[in-house]
Amino acid sequence: MKKLFFLLFAFAVISVNAQVNNTELADPKPGPQEAWQQVAQPTLGWGSIDIRYSRSQVPATTMKSPLLRAWRGERVAAQAVLATPKTLERVTFSVSDLKNGKNVIPASAIRKYFVRYVIADSYKERDDTVLVADRLDPVEVLTVEANTARPLWLDIHIPADAAAGTYKGTLTVDCDGTRLSLPLQLQVATRTLPAPKDWSFHLDLWQNPYAVARYFGVPLWSKQHFDLMRPSMELLAAAGQKVITCSVINRPWNGQTYDPFESMIGKMKQLDGTWRYDYSVFDRWVEFMMSCGITEQIDCYTLVPWHYRFDYYDCASNNVRYLECKPGEQAYHDFIAPFLRDLSKHLREKGWFERTYIAMDERPAAQMDAVWQIIQEVDPEFKIEGAANYNIESESADRIDDLSVGVHYNLIKGEALARRKAKGQKITFYTCCSSERPNTFTFSPPAEATYLCLHALACGYDGYLRWAYNSWPAQPNQTSRFRSKDWASGDAFLTYPEGSSIRMERLTEGIQTFEKIRQLRPQLNAKQQKQLDDAMQLFNDGKFKTDRDAAAPIHQLNDLLWKLGK
């Protein structure tokens, strides 16, 4: 029976073929094409990482080397743009070693991506489709069509032991026998940024392993599945991710994503009426994520699912049964209490209890109170994580050890914030489809992802939560639109099946800046503290008018930090 139970709950197979598709769709709004008549040959120029360049328009770029400055141990990005009036069948590009006298940052420390285009819509007009540059594809060779632009993205990792100074190198593009090149220059400071695992920023991007299995058409929880997830989860760890997302109840969000979250813990009601639980999948998932470098926190979603419907395997009837109940009802207590009791025991045996949180997402305060009563009865040492969209001054919110509030609510400040800090409780904020700007949609200005992390610091928060790291729609490489028009494009994911995204790279930039400020601040004199405080005021309100640009205050802050960090 144990083996059968394991098979029923652990080794479901995704019964679809692999759906990997890298073909870009046509630009629904290519715009005027006359400017291409002035382009005689393929050209290459440096662009700005703040701009999503159009595929259909001649890009406005410069041949000058970008101003790249970094601490040791930091990652910095650069973007060049290739424009061609004719089809280029085979385009490749490379970056030389970066040299400063005898000191070298090897080319192997630089990740190279072709920037790819996906369909998106506007925030207010969901039928208004556009083609946007967002996906970062690590493919080595690409065909570039006539009268199009193709951005090239560099992710430069400065070794922690690199010598300070100015490094120079070359970006080279080979296209059908023609070679184009650009100079690259990087200034490295004497200061060192810690490794991502040591960053203080509390990053909580929810992972969806079910999307990976569906997209690639592999058996759920198979070796192929874990192998395919590893690059994406290691990329997440490199951004300083702290939290492992675990679904311990079937479809905790009522299947709102394209690939619903299933329960990682099987529940069986035995013939004598007692309960038995299978942690096989849960354990493998947690151990896998820890092997990727994400080890600080385990969030278990959820004791209060959005649908109030719980499933279990009933031995008496040899069927899966469903129980509909809500917190505060006796049936709910009788189902949840033994599960929590056994979960506590299992987590303590694994040595994971201290880092585990019972997580709940935007649930009514009355239901949170009812759940808290059961937790107190079963094991009062359980910690609670919750995203709240109601009055956080309530007693319910004070019980949440890791609380996240919506940026559009701006609910916590002053005394409430100080109270949480004094108790050692975490406080983050989150964005979702409720707020147009600042955000991380595929059509959002790239600098807004960086801005969000600095908003966290300006408000005294510990970090940032985003409800979906990789809950992909049907064909994310072609369109970032979701099946529901209630969600803006890209709301459900920050990375693609292969590679990264401009949004993810700029988010990581913001986290690094957060860490640099936390290191610098205690070492500044009063005048320097005032300069930094004034610069950070530009990130405090978290509200944008439609014409506001996030890039300007970021550049102003970076200039100041470079000066203060010398």
Provide a brief overview of the structure.
With 566 residues, the protein is α/β, with parallel strands linked by helices.
What are the salient characteristics of this protein?
Immunoglobulin-like; 566 residues; six-stranded antiparallel sheet; 25 strands; disordered N terminus; alpha/beta
Explain how this protein is built.
The chain has 566 residues and is α/β, with parallel strands linked by helices. Strand 18 and strand 19 (319-324) form a beta hairpin. The longest helix has 21 residues, at 330-350. The strands form 5 sheets. The protein has an 8-stranded parallel sheet with strand order 13-24-23-22-21-20-17-14. A 6-stranded antiparallel sheet has the order 1-3-10-7-8-25. It has a 5-stranded mixed sheet with strand order 2-12-11-4-9, with no helix packed on it. Helix 5 (330-350) crosses helix 6 (365-378). The protein has helices spanning 2-10, 209-216, 223-238, 280-291, 330-350, 365-378, 395-398, 414-423, 447-459, 502-520, 526-536, 551-564, and strands at 43-46, 68-72, 75-84, 88-95, 98-100, 103-105, 110-121, 129-137, 142-144, 148-157, 165-175, 178-192, 202-205, 243-247, 266-269, 275-278, 297-301, 309-314, 319-324, 356-361, 383-388, 402-406, 426-431, 463-466, 500-501. It has a domain at 42-191: Immunoglobulins (Immunoglobulin-like), CATH 2.60.40.10.
